[in-house]
Specification:
The protein is mainly α. The protein has one domain. It has 7 helices and no strands. Helix 3 crosses helix 5 and helix 3 packs across helix 6. It is globular, with a radius of gyration of 15 Å. This is THO complex subunit 2.
């Protein structure tokens, strides 16, 4: 699959990259059909953004901020984000570089705080997706008090 997130957007995140990413996600989200191509494109964009955080190219605060903004674009966006995080969870758990795993953990925790802070106001499906993310984090030990 081709790269959806150009390196220039990451380098110029505050000057325009963030807005470019928001426009991309908005355009991908406008296709309200739940076909696999639309889902995969959005998932790829979220994965690439998160991957830049893991590699140290983008601050987790910047990524979690934009993810909090796009979470409302589609009703299944929390589930798509959870899927992208599951992939990165597997990838980073296999790495010997602890710093990359720490970057991933910081991103997920930041997203949990920013993106899902209004969980009681969400509909049932979104709440279920949020609980899926929280259950994943708990099962991996991220929410056991010592790692937050």
């Amino acid at each position: 699959m081709a790269t959806m997130l150009p390196a220039e957007w990451i380098k110029n995140w505050e000057k325009g990259g963030r807005n470019e990413f928001l426009q991309l996600c908005r355009a991908l989200s406008e296709d309200k059909s739940h076909d696999s191509l639309s889902f995969r494109d959005i998932q790829q964009a979220l994965y690439e953004l998160s991957s830049h955080v893991v590699r140290g190219n983008l601050k987790h605060e910047h990524a979690s901020g934009v993810l909090a903004d796009i979470i409302e674009f589609r009703e299944d966006m929390p589930s798509i984000l959870a899927d992208a995080f599951c992939i990165l969870d597997i990838e980073t758990s296999c790495l010997e570089e602890k710093t990359k795993r720490d970057c991933f953990t910081q991103l997920v925790l930041s997203c949990l705080c920013k993106t899902f802070s209004g969980i009681q106001e969400l509909d049932g499906q979104t709440t279920l997706s949020c609980r899926k993310v929280a259950a994943l984090l708990f099962s991996k030990g991220f929410l056991d008090g010592g790692r937050m």
